[in-house]
Amino acid sequence: MTVSLPPTSAAIAGVLATPCQNTDLTPEPGDLEEVQEATLCLINQERARNNELPLAISAQLAQVAQQHSADMLSKDYFSHTTPTGETQLERVLASGYIPNSQVGYTIGENIAWGTGYLATPSSIVAAWIASPEHLANILTSGYRDTGLGVEPAAPPSLAGGQPGATYTQEFGVIQD
Q1: What is the CB neighbour count within 10 angstroms for residue 131?
Q2: Chain-centroid distance, C-alpha 2
Q3: How far apart (Å, rounded) are the C-alpha atoms in residues 65 and 127?
Q4: Quick one: which of 22, 27, 21 has its CA closest to 114?
Q5: β-strand 56-57 against 164-175: which pairing, if any?
Q6: d(C-alpha 75, C-alpha 111), whole Å
Q7: Across-strand partners of 56?
Q8: How far apart are CA 42 and CA 29, in angstroms?
Q9: Cβ atoms of 152 and 166 closer than 8 Å
Q10: Using one digit for the tens of pLDDT, what is the confidence trace for 81-137?
Q11: pLDDT digits over 8-46, tens only?
């Protein structure tokens, strides 16, 4: 007799059974896709360990995340709000992720930077998991979509000349 798991259980079991690759890569221009995949894998494993479904990549949220990481690096700041006052909500609205003002939505954002080994996906995700506010975003059951943006350097005023990386993760769900 074959026992089949419910779709939710099967999805969670599949995530937990798949080892994450490249989790100790230090982000460089040529490996950013692998770094993003490793980061998402670690995030989805944490969700699965807490009985939450994996997040799916949204092209719009990925663009928002990448642009925010690049902006923090180029303008040398570290904040959810840009030096000109632009908020995460404004960035997400501009991306088209929220299709119109008639739909409900929930969004969240995690940001991080690190130098040396602290810039790897495993270190960044471990730091997020150790932070109650960041972990809350990771484990919010309503989120279905995500986007990751990684720049292979940390904001200059924070990095002290050391190699590093800047990460942004967007979270979202559209409620029809």
Answers
A1: 14
A2: 37
A3: 18
A4: 27
A5: unpaired
A6: 15
A7: 145
A8: 21
A9: no
A10: 999 999 999 999 999 999 998 999 999 999 999 999 999 999 999 999 999 999 999
A11: 888 898 998 999 999 999 999 999 999 999 999 999 999
Among the listed residues 61, 9, 176, 38, the one whose alpha carbon sits nearest the alpha carbon of residue 120: 38
Judge whether 53 and 11 are in contact, CB under 8 Å: yes
Token reading at 132: 């109650």
| Residue carrying structure tokens 């954002």 | 109
Answering whether pTM is above 0.85, one says yes
Instruction: Kindly give, in sequence order, each residue whose CB lies less than 8 Å from that of residue 136, ignoring residues fewer than 6 positions away.
Output: none
Q: Order across the sheet with 164-175: list the strands.
A: 56-57, 145-151, 164-175, 104-115
Query: Three-state SS for 57?
Result: strand
- Please state, in angstroms and rounded to a whole number, the distance separating the CA atoms of residues 15 and 19: 8
Q: Which helix (DSSP H) or strand (DSSP E) does residue 70 occupy?
A: helix 59-74
Alpha-helix residue ranges (DSSP H) falling in 18-49? 32-49
Other Cβ atoms less than 10 A from the Cβ of 144: the count is 17
